[in-house]
Every structure is written in structure tokens, then in C-alpha cells.
Amino acid sequence: MDRAQKEELVTSLSEVFKSTSVVVVAHYSGLTVAQLSALRRQAKAAGATVKVAKNRLAKIALEGSDVAHVASLMKGPTLIAYSSDPVAAPKIATDFAKTNDKFVILGGALGKSALNPDGVKALATLPSLDELRAKLVGLIQAPATKVAQVVNAPAAKLARVFGAYGRENEAA
Question: Would the pTM of this model clear 0.90, i.e. be above it?
């Protein structure tokens, strides 16, 4: 990698660190290329990104960003998972760590807050942004349908009463 490529990588990483809401740092030593490719595919499907970058270049890119405190975790073979959704990257990393013993979560950052491995796992248990939106829409729609049922119920009861009187008068 020549100097221009390194500068380009640092620039792109610094933009990512300034715009992303969550970063997860993990060791990947001992994973095969196929396993790393599977992790990248899972992350892409969930709206997250997984990158392996040189620690020195990643530390330079971290300078001046809100997540700069994760630089202390950059020792050895590390990878970075990030996403704009605060739950996507931790969820992918945690799920992958459950099935692969060689993948070890070191920690991460949520905005300006530092996360230890347990914090990343706790964040992974939260529902994603899309799931929260779906629940919110369901909560908003539920009262509207109940109001419609309550408004329609008296009319339906009146119709049944009138129908009963009509049948009663026909029988007499």
C-alpha cells in the first residue's frame, strides 16, 4: 500500500467514524477467509459494515471523532464493525461470536460512550430500529381500530334491536 492509498483509507475511515453511531472492535485471529466472508455478508444484510484495517491507520482515523476512545482496543489482529443503526453491528458481532470461538469482542463505542464486551452484548439484545418502528406503528394503529369498533358498536346494536322489533311485529 503506497502513501496515497493510506491517506485515502484514513480519510474514508475518519468520515465513517464521524458519521456512524456505533463501532464494535473485535479480534479475528484464527478465522478462515470463508468465515470472515460470511461475517461480512451477514453484516451487509443487516445494514452494517465489517472492515479490517491496519491498527495504526485506524488510530489515525479515530483522532478527533466521538469514538476516539476505542483506539486503546486496537492491539493485535482487530476488525471494526459499524452501522448507522445502533443495534445492527453489535447484534451481528454478538451472533457471530456465539458460533465462532476465535472471534472475540473487545468492546466498542456508542456515540461518546465507551462499551465493554458486556455492553456490546447488552446493546445487541435491544430491538433494531426497524423493529421499534413496527411496534410504534402497531401501537398507533391499535387505538384507531378500537375507536372504530366502539363507534360502530352502538350502531350495530341499534340495528339488531330494530331488526328484533321488526321480526316481533311481523310475527304478531
Answer: no
